[in-house]
Design a protein that fits this description.
- The strands form three sheets. Strands 3, 4, 7, 10, 11 and 12 form a six-stranded mixed beta sheet that branches. The protein has a five-stranded mixed beta sheet with strand order 2-6-5-8-9, with no helix packed on it.
- The protein has two domains: about 70 residues, no CATH class; about 220 residues, Protocatechuate 3,4-Dioxygenase, subunit A, CATH 2.60.130.
- α1 packs across α2.
- The radius of gyration is 23 Å and the shape is globular.
- About 25% of the residues lie in helices and about 20% in strands.
- By secondary structure, the chain is of the alpha/beta class.
- The chain binds 3-methylcatechol and fe (iii) ion.
Amino acid sequence: MADSLTNTPEVQKLLTRVAGLDQPGGDERLKRVVHRVATDLCQIVEEFDVTPTEFWTAVSYVTRLGQANEVGLLVPGLGIETFLDLMMDEKERRAGLQGGTPRTIEGPLYITDAPLEKGEARLDQDPEQGEVLFVDGQVRDPDGKPVSGAIVDVWHANTKGGYSFFDPSQSPYNLRRRIETDAEGRYRFRSILPSGYGCPPNGMTQQLLTALGRHGNRPAHIHFFVEAPGFRKLTTQINISDDPYLHDDFAFATREGLIPELVRHTDPAEIKARGLNEPFATITFDFELHREAANLPEAVVVRDHAKAA
Ligand code: MBD
Ligand code: FE
């Protein structure tokens, strides 16, 4: 813009001072980032002719978003968490990594220190009528060899799409476990089929999504962290393949390679063999981890997590 206000010497000097670029102290990288953010904000206000009332409406929105603890919900809704994944994918690709189980976003609903069990676990501990689900699989290295002693940290929603801890109607750690793989690198768990998550309908995230003409629903999914010494930590999810939102996720987490077949079992003999008296579902999903190496970007993401009790 030839006659841009942002580009005038007066505003350029203002932005330089805002970012502390005329000062000796502080963090150089942070200064450059803040300078860019402040400059881009001025340009947005100028280009869209944002009025002061509109601007303070946005300030109020951000304030209330934080007060409602929904920043971690809006970030995936705006695709930013997926973009961080794509950045990591790209860096790994440039470093020569290929294959492996795809990563996808962690989301805002993990809590640390779920009960640790060996080989197998039952995740559903609250009395809830859900379709019984058995999940099993193997953790493998890039040569296809089993990784025993890996920790499969799994968490998912209940039949209403709610996560324990965040949903106070559930008991602590319901539908959350850490499972150590056995000598053959295998894990297995019994649980119930989750439902998809929907953003709180009266919340700040949904307010913006609605204004964008968007919904705030996720397809049903199961989250995983998979960790083992010498391997890169994997953050991923699998989808329940028959969900109508499978390819219409408000958080953009669905990826090829993360949609295992959901098998439904109705044969009375199979039902009896599982000790059940109703049909059930099974999913088999194997994880392939990348070996850790010095030339790779840090795989462990440091991020605030709630901790129950
Ligand atoms: C979820 O369950 C979730 O996984 C994400 C990414 C966002 C909101 C709810
Ligand atoms: Fe989730």
